[in-house]
Design goal:
Blueprint (H helix, E strand, L loop, with lengths): L2 H29 L9 H22 L10 H25 L7 H30 L6 E6 L3 H10 L6 E7 L13 E3 L4 H7 L4 E4 L8 H11 L3 E4 L12 E5 L2 E5 L8 H37 L5 E7 L5 E7 L22 H9 L6 H6 L4 E3 L6 H10 L12 E3 L1 H4 L9 H17 L2 H17 L6
Parallel strand pairs: 1-2, 1-4, 2-3, 4-5, 10-11
Antiparallel strand pairs: 6-7, 8-9
Length: 463
């Protein structure tokens, strides 16, 4: 509903945020003009371009201008803060890696501070605009609901939460079908819908009774068109499918999906892949480049054999891939079938330390770079476990709609290590499905941060 208004607000705030960033930069540049050497001016121009690029990437990645958040002050402000932290991180990385950039620290701090304050002012402006629209009668909606049933009551509760001023004038239903008090008055039977709508100056009619249930609805649709009243139908899908569904359209054809999947969107997959490449490249360059030789030597000194343990595991869409780990066990014939247990005699002393701190998983950043895995996602299981649990847990294979991850939502919620019972695995699956339906880059960042924290303190289930 109100898509044009929503699109206008999204574009307005996106342009306004970018504008205040550039105004902050120009004002700081003017204030510091006397302190900037002629040879350094090109570096300030590069920083200007980088700042704009960083904000576009940050706001796009966190999706701060989406339809749901744009009307809610607290949620909009919180997502803006997340975007600013991303923006700040990109700027800091640029300054850290571009040693040639001779920029005044005071200038950089002034730009960042001015932009942060301007964003805060913009969000209070958002609050004022929202209040303005809520009190404009010419964009308000007066709604009548045909039918009084569970869907009608749920519809009324949803309409009460609409961001634009919405007034529900009442329900239209036959008295013989009403067995309880309603939150809104029953203002008419089904025979006088249009006349009553005109009397209450209704702008939209929602029908929870489908034309198939009562053919008179077709006549009401035509009469509503003649009276310039929008007529909308809320279909009852419970007779076809007994669980929540999501509706998309392929041209004019409705398509029902059993679950919402943010990563089914190509744009979101590109965001996640870009994020994976950046983070995994940094980890490989800054950490694994010196850590691999040290860990390799320690592994080899304690237990002769290969440094890396490469095992086929189940990946996206059930396809297998070679998962890379530091070898934490003595070479043994059960490694590809038997899960590690507490006080497992196969685990070396070095292996115990690596498993406790998750260091043994770090080579999987190469799997991420090769696109076999993502940094965050459902943990990949051994082929035997996939085969066994797919027969015992009905929703088990749904987790394979995603690329497997080095860490995941299940792991930071304590579901890691040995799975002693089917319930243990089912709990993991439920966490993985929640991640599938609620993915965001901010959620990935949160999971990575929690994983790093758990690595530092150690985990009791890691053995």
């Amino acid at each position: 509903m109100n898509q044009r208004l929503t699109i206008l607000l999204r574009i307005s705030f996106a342009v306004l945020d970018l504008m205040v960033l550039n105004v902050a930069f120009v004002m700081c540049r003017y204030m510091f003009e006397g302190y900037i050497a002629a040879d350094d001016k090109v570096q300030y121009t590069y920083f200007w371009f980088l700042s704009n690029f960083a904000w576009v990437i940050s706001s796009w990645s966190t999706n701060i201008y989406n339809d749901k958040d744009i009307y809610l002050f607290e949620r909009f402000s919180r997502s803006t803060m997340q975007a600013f932290l991303y923006f700040f991180g990109i700027v800091m990385l640029y300054l850290a890696f571009n040693k040639e950039a001779d920029l005044s620290r005071l200038f950089v701090i002034s730009v960042l501070t001015s932009f942060a304050v301007s964003l805060l002012i913009n969000r209070f402006l958002h609050l004022a605009i929202h209040h303005f629209f809520q009190n404009k009668d010419h964009i308000s909606r007066k709604i009548m609901i045909i039918g009084y049933n569970e869907r009608a009551k749920k519809l009324a509760s949803y309409l009460e939460q609409e961001p634009v001023k919405t007034e529900i004038v009442g329900f239209c239903e036959e008295e013989k079908n009403i067995y309880e008090l309603s939150n809104y008055p029953i203002i008419s039977g089904l025979d006088n819908v249009i006349e009553t709508s005109k009397q209450y100056k209704v702008t939209e009619i929602f029908s929870t009774i489908s034309p198939e249930q009562q053919t008179g609805i077709y006549s009401l649709i035509n009469q509503a068109d003649q009276a310039c009243i929008r007529f909308r139908i809320i279909p009852d899908l419970s007779q076809f499918i007994r669980k929540p569904v999501h509706i998309d359209y392929l041209n004019d054809m409705p398509v029902l999906s059993l679950r919402k999947e943010p990563l089914d969107d190509v744009g979101n997959r590109i965001k996640k892949r870009f994020y994976d490449i950046i983070v995994s490249s940094l980890v490989i360059a800054l950490v694994l480049s010196w850590l691999i030789p040290i860990i390799s030597l320690l592994i080899w000194l304690e237990s002769r054999g290969p440094i890396f343990f490469i095992q086929q595991r189940s990946g996206k869409n059930g396809k297998t891939f070679n998962c890379i780990k530091f070898r934490s066990m003595k070479v043994n014939k059960d490694a590809h079938e038997k899960q590690a247990v507490k006080n497992d005699g196969r685990i070396t002393r070095m292996g115990k330390f690596m498993r406790k701190t998750n260091i043994d998983e770090l080579p999987q950043f190469f799997n991420v770079l090769m696109s076999d895995m993502s940094i965050v996602g459902p943990r990949p299981h051994m082929l035997k476990h996939t085969d066994d649990y797919s027969k015992l847990i009905r929703q088990y294979m749904i987790r394979h709609f995603l690329k497997p991850g080095i860490t995941g939502w299940a792991q930071i919620n304590g579901c890691r290590g040995e799975t002693r019972t089917v319930k243990d695995m089912n709990d993991r699956v439920q966490y993985d499905l929640w991640y599938l339906e609620n993915w965001s880059l901010w959620l990935d960042t949160r999971i990575i941060a929690m994983t790093a924290f758990n690595m530092a303190k150690g985990e009791k289930n890691a053995y």
